[in-house]
Amino acid sequence: MAIATINPTTGETIKVFDSLTDEEIAHKLALGQTAFQQYRYTSFLERSHWLQQAATILDQEKTEFAQLLTLEMGKPLKAAIAEVEKCAVVCRYYAENAADFLADVTVKTDASHSFIKYQPLGIILAVMPWNFPFWQVFRFAAPALMAGNVGLLKHASNVPQSALAIEDIFHRAGFPVGVFQTLLIGAGKVADLIADDRVKAATLTGSEPAGASLAAAAGKQIKKTVLELGGSDPFIVLESADLETAVNTAVTARMLNNGQSCIAAKRFIIAESIADQFEKLLLAKFQSLKVGDPMQPDTDIGPLATPDILQDLDQQVKIAVKSGGKILTGGYALSDGAGNFYPPTIIIDVPPVHPIAKEEFFGPVALLFRVADIDAAIKLANDIPFGLGASAWTNNQQECDRLIQEIEAGAVFINGMVKSDPRLPFGGIKRSGYGRELSIQGIHEFVNVKTVWVK
């Protein structure tokens, strides 16, 4: 895949980049290693100042950055602005809290003094996706850099300008040269990077195949990895729920980022007693959404990021229909003009046992399922290989307790949309990956948890 900015709204190739040569990669690795030897001894106060500066740059230039995100991957501009603002939030969160998160912890033992010390590992490789070009990177970089590590970013090949912009932000914020570097390279170079002794660990957000490949390469080298992979999150609505609020949230939860989000609600599991009403309300709202130029402020749904994603989604919908599903709205790629556009789509009656019902639809497509009761809802919610997030709606406390206890996911949101928050750990189970980002758990992923015992 070429490293290039290709406008998904028009199909126009904006800018093409050469992949780094082996010599250039070697230079960046050497630069990162040299930087770490000094950066690891900088104080939390220094790192915090630089990260606060990065947050200031993000806030001050959020519109320009957002336009770049929209240009490269097609998300509505208003959503892109919100993404950049959230990156500033996560920078400030770790700038303000990292020192406490990584402070020595005294433990009473038979020693005169015993404690736990957290120390940086070195170069951390981040393999990041295109769907949230800034957020995915900053939620890794903010804790990693505050812990004293240095970062190498291998970003998705269709967002190279975003990748370079992030490196420039850290540079302008005052971080020492080499502490954060972008590598414009193809996926074929990742295994060699992981094999290099200077790279101590890796994190990846992306597809299952990409995660499996990275984990296998790291496993051969006995290196730590954190993986955040796909999801087919359930959105459960039971009879006692506030139906209007649930429907309004369902639209946002499915259409976030043009439907291209790992934690987007994808399977809507509705109690039979309210299913007709839910379906009617959701259909009306889907049909009212405006598909078009993501740079325009009134656009709700922009294009999918690449033609391949559009083709894959269209094929999945065709399989769903062939399996017995019925389309209530949408269900076809928009062909009038250039761009990777797919309309908001609702599919009902897909047999839950069919393999297509267990796949992740990465675009504005909602699958609706009807269930008799909470037992059936929980069973259907768990009957997939994924376990990233789940949203469930009820005003019955016993149902709430069961949903929290029994749903198999890294996050369960009751009466709210699944979202990432710097204050809460984020990650999945099963084939959605392992490890956690954000919160105190996220910053502890890439440190040496050192036991110290002194007599």
From TrEMBL:
| CDD domains recorded | ALDH_SSADH1_GabD1 (cd07100)
Q: Which residues form the signal peptide?
A: none
Domain Aldehyde dehydrogenase intervals: 3-452
User: InterPro entries given for it?
Assistant: Ald_DH/histidinol_DH, Ald_DH_C, Ald_DH_N, Aldehyde_DH_dom, ALDH_GabD1-like, GABD/Sad-like
Species of origin: Richelia sinica FACHB-800
Which sequence ranges form a coiled-coil region, renumbered to this chain?
A: none
UniProt key word NADP? yes
**What is the top-level taxon of the source organism?**
Bacteria
Q: Name one GO molecular function term.
A: aldehyde dehydrogenase [NAD(P)+] activity
Task: State the family it belongs to.
Answer: Belongs to the aldehyde dehydrogenase family.
| Listed name of the protein | Aldehyde Dehydrogenase
Keywords, ordered alphabetically: NADP, Oxidoreductase
